[in-house]
Amino acid sequence: MLNQGKFKREITLSDLIFIGFGSMFGSGWLFASSHVASIAGPAGLISWVIGGISILLLGLIFAELGAALPQAGAIVRFPVYSHGSIMGYLMGFITLIANTSLVAIEVEAARQYAASWAPFLTEEGSTMPTISGWLFQFLLLILFFVLNYWSVKIFARSNMIITLFKFIVPLLTIVVLLTQIKFENFTVSGFSPFGINGIQSAISVGGIIFAYLGLTPIVSVASEVKNPQKTIPIALILSTILATAIYLFLQIAFIGAIPTNILSSGWSGISSEFSLPFRDIAVSLGLGWLTWFIISDAIISPTGTGNIFLSASSRVVYGWAKSGTLFKVFQKIDKKSGVPRSALWLSFLLSVFWTLPFPSWEKLISVVSAALVLSYAIAPISAAALRKNAPDLSRPFYLKGMAIIGPLSFIIASLIVYWSGWNTIFWLLGSQIVMFLIYLLFKRVVPTDKTSFAQQIKSSLWLIFYYAAMMVISYLGTFGGNEMVSQPWDFIVVTAISVTSYYWGAYTGLPKAIIDDVSDETEEEVPINRVRQM
């Protein structure tokens, strides 16, 4: 056993709400509005509502799981407790990809907006960084690393200050632009110029789900939260509702403030016309003072979110290591700071790696969104399985209506993944199947928990079926596929795959859950009913 320290419970309810809200307000508010408008037109408002409802449903499920099992890197550990180590191995891989690449996206966004003041950071006529631009991004990553390295209290306090500013500027932008609203903009080319396909695509590739996905950081730092059984559900629900309301008003303000004559050629070119959406609108309206605030926040908001997700990534690495399928060195917690510094180093290096190909915000967005949704989508099935194989587990927040909310949230998550398109699904789900095969190949050298290897295979086959079936329908479907299966039949197929996978996964979990005691990891013991396999 490692000689190590323990996590320190220093995060309060206000800290956690700021973490949740701060993680949802990064580059999403700065770029998504124009991308959504160019894909769905004014009907993008419907896309935001659908996205908000989807995340709220998942948030309710995470509230039950997070309150019952407030552990570091919990998003990776839930499926281990319900289905075994293979699930933790697969979820750890995909969640780490999503979180660390998201950190890279945020510094990319900060650099793009900073180029408004320092043009030398971005290549002329492109969104690609110059060498100076990449060094700017690298320095931001170093700043995140330092803020996370010393203690969780420093991280939480710095995040609260940043989030206060990034909350004020979007509200100011909404108020000012609503005074410039032109109601004819909502009908000039039709409310839904691209039909239902546009509404659906905007959710996945327009940046909506990317903007909303702030649940991971809340549950990832659960071991460091005071009174987690009450704090986590409140923070999850309030963060989601607040973010949904503000994003909806931002979209209304953006659409309404665009000069109507620009819309004469339609909505499809809006994302190019307003590549830095709210800054460009402020410039076109002659609101120089607002431009200054927006650019300032455009540098601060993504950096704040990147800082949060670097912290969450290190806890994901820690949770992955605790599941027994990643090197034990990443379980080590610094005694003085209570920070898993080895895991933080790995997260930092991976975040730097994602910046090396110089990707643009638009290129990474669909991949990160799909990866995050997939990592979140397992939660309903884990929750359903744990109700069967850990019935005695204390659940301070017991979600009523799980029989409906569970499968419904999984269906919606599957549709969001499907809408991300074949190119994203092919490599993302394909890589998960390859990782599964690697696990089988090296089963004798990969450490496992007390569950038999045969049981782990049995409990994870539903996920492999789900991945393979989703790849097939994506290839045959209408979102980047060959369109052999048209709408609405592709939706019906995705729904059928989701329902089959949900109940298969719920009923083939471990016979009895194996749950670690949180007091093994934290300085302050939190009562958790330990459930061990007999």
From TrEMBL:
<dbReference type="GO" id="GO:0022857">
    <property type="term" value="F:transmembrane transporter activity"/>
</dbReference>
<feature type="transmembrane region" description="Helical">
    <location>
        <begin position="44"/>
        <end position="65"/>
    </location>
</feature>
<dbReference type="InterPro" id="IPR052962">
    <property type="entry name" value="AA_Transporter_AGT"/>
</dbReference>
<feature type="transmembrane region" description="Helical">
    <location>
        <begin position="234"/>
        <end position="258"/>
    </location>
</feature>
<feature type="transmembrane region" description="Helical">
    <location>
        <begin position="86"/>
        <end position="105"/>
    </location>
</feature>
<feature type="transmembrane region" description="Helical">
    <location>
        <begin position="12"/>
        <end position="32"/>
    </location>
</feature>
<dbReference type="Pfam" id="PF13520">
    <property type="entry name" value="AA_permease_2"/>
</dbReference>
<feature type="transmembrane region" description="Helical">
    <location>
        <begin position="162"/>
        <end position="181"/>
    </location>
</feature>
<dbReference type="GO" id="GO:0016020">
    <property type="term" value="C:membrane"/>
</dbReference>
<protein>
    <submittedName>
        <fullName>APC family permease</fullName>
    </submittedName>
</protein>
<feature type="transmembrane region" description="Helical">
    <location>
        <begin position="281"/>
        <end position="300"/>
    </location>
</feature>
<dbReference type="InterPro" id="IPR002293">
    <property type="entry name" value="AA/rel_permease1"/>
</dbReference>
<feature type="transmembrane region" description="Helical">
    <location>
        <begin position="397"/>
        <end position="419"/>
    </location>
</feature>
<feature type="transmembrane region" description="Helical">
    <location>
        <begin position="425"/>
        <end position="442"/>
    </location>
</feature>
<keyword id="KW-1133">Transmembrane helix</keyword>
<feature type="transmembrane region" description="Helical">
    <location>
        <begin position="463"/>
        <end position="481"/>
    </location>
</feature>
<feature type="transmembrane region" description="Helical">
    <location>
        <begin position="487"/>
        <end position="505"/>
    </location>
</feature>
<keyword id="KW-0812">Transmembrane</keyword>
<keyword id="KW-0472">Membrane</keyword>
<feature type="transmembrane region" description="Helical">
    <location>
        <begin position="201"/>
        <end position="222"/>
    </location>
</feature>
<feature type="transmembrane region" description="Helical">
    <location>
        <begin position="364"/>
        <end position="385"/>
    </location>
</feature>
<feature type="transmembrane region" description="Helical">
    <location>
        <begin position="131"/>
        <end position="150"/>
    </location>
</feature>
<feature type="transmembrane region" description="Helical">
    <location>
        <begin position="342"/>
        <end position="358"/>
    </location>
</feature>
